[in-house]
Design a protein that fits this description.
This protein is an alpha+beta fold. The chain has a 4-stranded antiparallel β-sheet with strand order 2-3-1-4, with helices on one face. Strand 2 and strand 3 form a beta hairpin.
């Protein structure tokens, strides 16, 4: 999971930027979401072990975001 907060009023710019970013491998699924506060979230699903080396979205340019990107990794415990 990749999450960034845009500079006030630049949420649309951050969303456009993240939509243009391609990964070196294609995940099973990729979902892009937005939230109040000019936040953008990207969740990717992979058919890989938890500790596998996987491609990551880069950091946006500093003038687009208010802080460094947050990244988390999760693993499914229930369901499909």
């Amino acid at each position: 999971m990749w999450e960034a907060r845009a500079v006030d009023g630049r949420g649309a710019d951050l969303l456009a930027w993240v939509r243009q970013q391609e990964l070196s491998r294609v995940p099973l699924r990729r979902e892009t979401l937005r939230a109040p506060g000019d936040r953008v979230l990207v969740v990717t699903w992979w058919d890989a072990p938890y500790d596998a080396e996987l491609p990551e979205l880069p950091e946006p340019e500093a003038e687009l975001v208010t802080r460094a990107v947050h990244r988390w990794r999760f693993e499914a415990v229930d369901g499909d």
